[in-house]
Amino acid sequence: MTQSTSGGPTRLAAIGLGRWARIMASAYYRSEDVDLVSCFTRNPERRARFAADYGCGEDDSLEALLSRDDIEGVIVTVPNDQHASVIEAAARAGKHVYVEKPVAVDAADIKRIRAAVTEANIVFACGHSARRLAGVREMRRCLDTGEIGTPSMVEAVFSNERGLELNEGDWRGDPERAPGGPLTQLGIHHIDNLNYLFGVPRRVVAMGRQGAPRVSNTMVVGALMEFDDVIGFLGNDWLTPGAFTMDLYATVARLRYELDFSWWSDSADTDAHARLIKVQFDSHGDDPDARVLSERPVQLDARNHLREEIDEFARAIRGRGEVEVDLETAVANVAVMMATLRALKEQRAVDVEETMSELS
Amino acid sequence: MTQSTSGGPTRLAAIGLGRWARIMASAYYRSEDVDLVSCFTRNPERRARFAADYGCGEDDSLEALLSRDDIEGVIVTVPNDQHASVIEAAARAGKHVYVEKPVAVDAADIKRIRAAVTEANIVFACGHSARRLAGVREMRRCLDTGEIGTPSMVEAVFSNERGLELNEGDWRGDPERAPGGPLTQLGIHHIDNLNYLFGVPRRVVAMGRQGAPRVSNTMVVGALMEFDDVIGFLGNDWLTPGAFTMDLYATVARLRYELDFSWWSDSADTDAHARLIKVQFDSHGDDPDARVLSERPVQLDARNHLREEIDEFARAIRGRGEVEVDLETAVANVAVMMATLRALKEQRAVDVEETMSELS
Asked: Is the ipTM of this complex over 0.90?
């Protein structure tokens, strides 16, 4: 593990410089906690553009980047199936690792990642930023204080139009590389949100369908999840204008969270384009037909979900605090995702314990 | 079958005079198509109050009411497990029948009802009024015209707080008399809405939980349904402030329908307290991060869901038009409900064909 006694910002590098790497960098590159030192992707033009846009250096190979002594941690946004090899290399070089969700999509990769992270004793964080959205934090607060009463049901939907634009050869359209389509790519966020709010579900059932014009991958996945306290629905749809919603039903009130998906990637402004609505009784007499429901917005203070997780990662590297979404939380999310994929493929109820045990 | 050549309003009587009978009567008793002639329930005080409030006569037995020549049809709102015997008696007396949903909750009752209705050749209507809500009609129009594109996913949630108030001995708290709790009592409305929009699903899986303070019945039911075109989620929850929502996801737009449940039983005002929101792209360029979603309310013209179905029933008795929700539609809804109950009980995917065949 690279040791540092520096009091300045943590020196990080970006590996994988696609669209999401740029969105992430836009969120963190001016952070006081972060000094973006270098970047790497195979494509030289893309690399040069990233370096110029975010004011960092660049390395012309992964090996070169990882061998530098002045880099403490790496931000990994390569495709899912390359996570394990990049993380292994980074961990061997003693670099702390932040990796985009999902941490991996198969058991072998999870085991390689766990072995590498444990061996190197590095700080490891997985990018489940959605739980940092102001509305999701507020839902958790309402559950913790008990002010909405006892919860019984939750719905979480994450949808967008990407499936309509996939072309043959795109890895997201390939059932092997992005199994479950929007489940792996979008639903994993809500799997973490549900984990954050209600823990790991016991059991999952699922239904899915295809329907994209040019690729064979699953485009819609619906899942039911049995938590200790609530029945959950997870909806994932790649064939429709963006939706990111959560509905939480409890005895005193129900909460509806909606995010304007156009602002999803502008993480400094995401919360300003989201709303949390609380529905409860204004009057609650014996006559059910005379009861009056009220619907009121809950005040949400703006946060910055993408920057927060990188700042936290940077500070944890320096021993200031811990990361919230560590490897075991990320693996639990993958176990739920794999249970859902298995429920979908085998059309049966799957105990999450079953997939969880395969990942340990 | 009672024949009538009268040109005046159709002469109807109400059987079962509980809360819902009064809500129904409030909707239809001043209708030009209806002349409410009589009413019956065993409790004399309740009967007298109903007769006084809705300006009708009363009969002191079901037999007396059904033997009257001046009554053409009956509006039946007795508990579910009494539907079959009341409908048999009415059909034998040649009275046309409107019955509250669900038409019945077991196969034996369905068969008795079908035999009685077929034998007597009466007009038979089942009270699935929710499909007449302006917002549900508009969703159907949007699907028919294709203006929202191809649908892929739908969510339908119907919840209220009744489970929190059930006491031991209440038939709604009894798993035998109201199996599935809110599924039988609330979800059946959305099962019909989904049937109206997407047809009968092929297959169902479900999860449920208890949780009411004083009764043992299921209080939350979540179900996934596989339709020809879409994956559906049906949510039913008896432990939370009222919710009646539908979310329809399609390629060009998604629609969210919300009803203020406080106005559910004031059917002349229900549509004025509902909204349908359409989310679609205002700009849709190649860069997914630059796309802008817009959210706009869709204009809904007020209808009157409860009165419409009684008016339609009254006119059909006189040969003017047909009822929209006939026995076979109501039975298909029960088949879906029974498949969901079985999926819940046996924790497996159930083909609707399986329950449908048991009802024929």
From this structure: yes
